């Protein structure tokens, strides 16, 4: 159950809460699985950047060769610099150099900032925007939700 919880819940706090509700061993497993998912963010983003850049080069090169448009996009990739910063913060935090009161303060600031960001998104949302977006985003969200639950189930069933 810890493998399923850690592989399907999005937020670390949700994984901790759900895992603790089911027991210490399940919680420990869920947290480890979630941390592995979090640590894989940066490498996956870099690999995706290279893959998407290669796809863009192929699409551009299939057009008219030698034009400015064909040469402008060749070899350009978008590097997710925040992911490297994310890994640096994870590495720094693993050394446990900061006092726990400072870490707790940073966590409170983080929670507040995330809450404000979600509030800002919520205040910008209206029924009209949902109507304008149409059904495609909702269908995609449903497919991704089913993929996440099904993938988590298969992962838990066949790897444990």
UniProtKB/TrEMBL annotation:
Keywords (A to Z) from UniProt: Cell membrane, Membrane, Transmembrane, Transmembrane helix
One Gene Ontology CC term in the entry: plasma membrane
Keyword Transcription regulation found: no
Subcellular location: Cell membrane
Transmembrane segments: 35-57, 77-95, 138-156
Topological category with respect to the lipid bilayer: Multi-pass membrane protein
Family under the similarity heading: Belongs to the UPF0324 family.
PANTHER family, per database record: INNER MEMBRANE PROTEIN YEIH-RELATED, UPF0324 INNER MEMBRANE PROTEIN YEIH
Name of the molecule in the record: Uncharacterized protein
Protein source organism: Parabacteroides johnsonii DSM 18315
């Amino acid at each position: 159950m810890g493998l399923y919880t850690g592989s399907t819940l999005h937020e670390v706090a949700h994984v901790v809460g759900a895992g603790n509700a089911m027991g210490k061993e399940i919680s420990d497993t869920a947290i480890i699985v979630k941390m592995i998912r979090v640590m894989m963010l940066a490498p996956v983003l870099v690999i995706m950047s290279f893959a998407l850049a290669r796809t863009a080069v192929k699409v551009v090169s299939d057009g008219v060769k030698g034009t400015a448009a064909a040469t402008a996009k060749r070899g350009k990739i978008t590097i997710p610099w925040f992911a490297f910063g994310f890994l640096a913060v994870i590495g720094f935090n693993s050394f446990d150099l900061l006092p726990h009161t400072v870490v707790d303060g940073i966590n409170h600031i983080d929670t507040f900032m995330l809450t404000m960001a979600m509030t800002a998104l919520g205040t910008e949302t209206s029924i009209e925007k949902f109507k304008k977006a149409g059904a495609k985003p909702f269908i995609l969200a449903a497919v991704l939700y089913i993929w996440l639950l099904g993938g988590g189930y298969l992962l838990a069933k066949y790897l444990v």
